[in-house]
Amino acid sequence: MTHDHTATALIVDDEADIRELVEITLARMSIRTHAVPDLASARDAMHQRSFDLCLTDMRLPDGEGLELIEHISEHHPACPVAIITAYGSAESAVASLKAGAFDFVSKPIDVAGLRSLVAQALKLAGLNHDAPPHPSLDVSPRLVGDTPAMQRLRETISRLARSQAPVHITGESGTGKELVARMIHAEGPREESAFVPVNCGAVPSELMESEFFGYLRGAFTGAMRDTPGLFARADGGTLFLDEVADLPLAMQVKLLRAIQERAIRPVGANMETAVDVRVICATHRDLAAEVQRGRFREDLYYRLNVIEVHVPPLRERRADIGILADRILAGLTRRMRLSPPPQLADDARAALRDYSFPGNIRELENILERAVTLSDTPVITRDYLRLNSPLSGSHAAPPHDAAPHADPHENTGTTSPGAPPSSVAASGDLESQIEALERERIQAALEACRYNKTRAARHLGITFRALRYRLAKLGMD
Length: 477
Hints:
Rossmann fold; 13% strand
């Protein structure tokens, strides 16, 4: 699309004043409009010419707006369509998003919100006048794998990127749910705006409201200046709520209101502030089961779970393990400046293919990083992987020429060729020995909790923030 192309929008509403308001708003954005009062006229207009955007009322004299969404999705898939709904009609908005609508706007129409919606739609159609369309997208890292499951997942991401519907990403810990969320953001019209991730289980309950919505100076003791919250930082972009099932019920009520009203009230403020945020959430739990147990609000569940995407565990796509391992080793080579680069021996590749990976990709990353650290040669054999799984047998033993009875208080400065050094004996000073022991404790906790860092922190008896600090200091993040 060239920048001299004038965008054209189809407006479908049986109320003349609504049509006029939308036409005036779009005209001020230099968008040509064609307004019609019913479904039949809209279909005729779509048949006679092409449009870059469609705004339609949900209820029309001769049918439902959902029918027009389905018609456009089938015959004009490149045209984003947004629904105009009655105020507070959450069910209609969710139904329209599931049917393929790009977004929705509630009556009475907020002009600023309408302009923001239209701007996002024009980006989606390649008509962003502020910047040329992205010629090619380079998301790094990308989802790696050629199995049918991963091909379907990439296709789903491409479809979801064209919508503004809330997305709920499910999958076990360590499968790459945040990466999926980042790709949905990066392939859509919000890619130039912020992607703001938050682990809901890592925010203390007493700080949640101020973390999510921000606060004004003087709102509470220690509030020395106005501070934006997560919603404000994600304005115009995407807010990713990881482990959303960990939100307490009181916060779920406030989150639901912010999503429905598209507005937030910072702590200490008297007025709400409008925000334009796409919400993507993820959890390894069964949210429907959490609703049944009374731990998650049903109304929030239906608002967040408009479209569900499942990320398969690594054991269900074993053919991808080899290429994933090579990608991870390449990253370690760059980060650790290794020369020559490490490679997996045939027995190591076979062992990885046979392993069940309860911690999924995150566990694979930790296994390989540990193996690279311990190995004295660039060729990593099975012995260095230290796998423990019902599919792989007992915990892998170190090579026979390792020194199993080395005195931890003696540093001889020698290591048997090809043998992984003892985590304590290899250290010549107390600080190194303590770090080695700490690393082992943290690694054991991560493995016991299937690499769920929130649970691992509880297992260790420390806060999530403290665990993150230790992981960064020890180079385990």
